[in-house]
Amino acid sequence: MSVLVITGTGTEVGKTAVTAGIAALARAEGRRVAVLKPAQTGLLPGEPGDVAEVARLAGDVTTRELARYPDPLAPVTAARRAGMATVHPADVASAVVELDATHDLVLVEGAGGLLVRFDESGSTLADIAWAVNAPVLVVAQAGLGTLNATALTAEALQRRGIESLGVVVGSWPLHPDLASLTNLADLPEAAGGPLLGALPQGVTKLGSVDFLAVAKRSFSPWFGGEFDPETFAAQFAVQ
Prior knowledge:
Blueprint: E1 3-8, H1 15-28, E2 33-37, E3 40-41, H2 50-58, E4 62-65, E5 68-69, H3 75-82, H4 89-100, E6 105-113, H5 125-132, E7 136-140, H6 146-159, E8 164-172, H7 178-191, E9 195-200, H8 208-218, H9 229-233
Parallel strand pairs: 1-6, 1-7, 2-4, 2-6, 3-5, 7-8, 8-9
């Protein structure tokens, strides 16, 4: 795999932290990594966005942002309000091909959830994944409500014939409640794939060295980490 698309079950679920963790682990293995953000919303020109955060946490990675819109809305809505051009799957595919030629791993981080619209024709991150023939990693919340959102995302991927690698919890709470604890067992079924990691809440406050150490513990060996879902779940006693 040289290209991976990272989506969330919604907004603010930890996609950027997960993207940074995977990038950091790949860099630790000596791989050349590029991170592509097709559309960044909610920021003005010059303000640090998601790719800047990935670079801060992961280190020496190539970053690219194709479009930026000031309003914190779906890309198509934000583009319309700003009177700016939208991003099409073909634009993203072209950027991926260019980055893939000079990197070992290209990570494409979506905006919001899988079916958030990028343009007036209704193109979504699912269309982007299809266009670049890349698998998708789903980032989910830990607590109540996550199973439905995760299952809907997995079903949308399956219906479109897009490979889903599995699911990662983007922000594991410091004090997990009953729903979070039981979801460790239920999320793989909802996702139709394995639980491949769980990043602790607040991990983005760390510097790059400490972040890498946490990422090592928080991601599956599939990404170069040490995370084992059974061992992780065994730390918590569910009454």
